[in-house]
User: Fold these one by one.
Assistant:
Number 1:
Amino acid sequence: MDIQKLIDTAKALVADNKGLLAMDESYPTCNKRFAKLGIPETAELRRDYREMIVTTAGLNESISGAILFDETVHQQLKDGSSFVNVLTDNGIIPGIKVDGGKVAMAGHPGEKITEGLDNLRDRLTEYAKMGLRFAKWRAVITIGKGIPTQACIEANAHALARYAVLCQEVGIVPIVEPEVLMDGDHTMERCFEVTEQVLHTVFNQLYTQGVVLEGMILKPNMIVPGLACSKQESVAEVADATIKCLLRTVPAAVPGIAFLSGGQSSQLASARLNAMNVRFKSELPWELSFSFGRAIQQPALDIWLGKEKNVPEAQKALYQQAVFNLAARQGEYMEKTDK
Ligand code: 13P
């Protein structure tokens, strides 16, 4: 294992106030987002969409790395070049989602476990040869009546740690993503309590499996109330709670924390990240960054609608969202929000 290479890549992913662009939606997720807008759910349109993203001029000013889906790395741009090469040539580090998605967890109604460890070593070796330098595995934790259970948290944390150590073996930086979902009417306090428990369990497992903390990135949820909760805290309250929870649970050796957006609006996700950096940036042991999917892509997808003629406007929107988050990392994001 080349530890220095892992450390260098992990640091590069969170350097210069840039962040990650998650464009690794699986077939069902990407199709669901297309269907909502009446875009045909075809492999060709998924390719077109992703070509629109990676050919956006200036994206590398605010994006350090892009997370791809397996389908995309086997497709080409219209001019025949590969997605991996186009990103690399533009100074954006290419990464890959390697989990196999979530399935119902046996014996635990309402809970999910992420699959994909079978053959993972072989797949990672192949991806490393293709030039992919980091990977992502997402575990989801649902808050509800009587859940999450310790069994679900431990099983997911164990899988995350086994994935992470396999990545590091072949020189790929693991993005470790335990996502506590926003769905439901739970309070922000409940999200705090569950996230704290999840992160303690994840870092315990990462330690047990021998993961090099300096060579990984954590991708957590922010501490937010459930989407259906009647009390929605202010941006500042979310920022304070999130930092408090992360300071309790994430070792200082981890170079960076890159949040998922998890269904927050683009504005709220940026405003909350901004508030955390305004209030705490100088005191934190890790870089506080973003690895947004929807919060960067959604405005562009709404404009693109599967039509070639909309590409320039969609690219402008994508570029703008990425720049907003570059600003949020510096505590300089100005766009107005409802809260
Ligand atoms: P969102 O920012 O849309 O939650 O996507 C991030 C991601 O990669 C989810 O796994």
Number 2:
Amino acid sequence: MNLRGKSFLTLLDYTPEQIRELLDLAAELKAQKKAGRPHRLHEGKHVALLFEKDSTRTRCAFEVAAADLGMHSTYLGPSGSQMGKKESIADTARVLGRMYHGIEYRGFDQSIVEDLARYSGVPVWNGLTNQFHPTQILADFLTIRERFGSLEGKKLVYLGDARYNMGNSLMVGCAKMGMRFVACAPEAYFPDKALIEACRAVAAGTGATLEFITDPMEAVKGAHVLYTDVWVSMGEPEQVWKERIEALSPYRVTQALMDQAGEQCRFMHCLPAFHDLNTAIGRDIYRKFGIDCMEVTDQVFESGRSIVFDQAENRLHTIKAVMAATL
Ligand code: CP
Ligand code: NVA
């Protein structure tokens, strides 16, 4: 595999073979880490981690992965740098490209990571934009492979706001890897038509299927994975909570949906999740709307069929693989 110098902006830019090889490398690096074998493949290099939005998993995964590979990382948060306020993305990219071997970016429009890649001259890794969250999909697919042995033919049903980064990226990933992808949502929450067409073209070559279904009880039948995400994403205005709760409550992942899917089915979520009242936002929503969970019930989240923390751990191993392969 020669991915050296290649940015990781969306899975659309990667072939199924390249994705498979990144997953194989992640599994290998995970085994090495578990065995306590050092893998300082990029000793002495430096990476910049730009976060215009908050993060627990992605930031920690990049920082720990960089350290495990022998690298040093610099975190630049939503405030404290010149980026976006006094200095354009293009200028920031050209500065960082002179000091760092690679750059991670989390923030708003996909065009920002594209510009960073265009102007910096070093590999840029997308740590989440409004449109895509590709490092999350690698972690999810490693987790599915560990659980089910392979990706091909596995049925993944995404319930909720399928127009945003997670719905989009899962659709792309499933199309690439020959999976059966179902977006289950009200029609207004289905992915963008142009992206669906691009994914259909990919699916034609991989044997993947893409379906768009409004009835959850119908959609989940025979699923290997029920996947959901928050109903309101980072950067969206608070006013959208009301319409989201009204539109998406029928798509909450409940025990009844898990039962309808079947014994084989596992629950997945990129996290963070609203499954109880142990968060400030969760309590605020409870006061305003009287619901004690949102996209998933606490029963499903805490059940033995929930593999969300395996996913979270796999962020580390897959992000490490992306950096190891592209630097
Ligand atoms: N899943 C995910 O990207 O989590 P963070 O927002 O904590 O990075
Ligand atoms: N859709 C969510 C994903 C968080 C990992 C968001 O963008 O906030």
